[in-house]
From TrEMBL:
Organism: Myxococcus virescens
Name of the molecule in the record: Uncharacterized protein
């Protein structure tokens, strides 16, 4: 919870970085970082190369960080696209 100098609850102002994380929750791994904020609809196809396979968007998340302070660094906020990537892509790229 964030509080102001008087101890009252306050909502922090967080900056949204111009990046989007593509993340496969099934295997708990990052697929890619995209320069820019991208929010495709759930069910959209995502085409991958090497090997050429098709994954699917399963969810969209807004990952809230925290503002920097005297005792801690800023944790940036980002958009995250959750995807399901075929196992063969992970086997080829690990």
């Amino acid at each position: 919870m964030f509080v102001d100098k008087t101890g009252a609850h306050t909502a922090p102002t967080l900056s949204l970085k111009r990046k989007t994380l593509v993340f496969d929750q099934r295997v708990n791994k990052q697929v890619a970082w995209l320069d820019g904020v991208v929010v495709p609809p759930i069910g959209s196809k995502i085409e991958l190369a090497e090997p050429n396979v098709t994954g699917f968007v399963t969810g969209i998340r807004l990952m809230l960080g925290q503002p920097g302070g005297d005792t801690h660094s800023e944790i940036p906020s980002n958009v995250c696209i959750d995807v399901e990537i075929p196992e063969e892509w992970w086997k080829h790229n690990s």
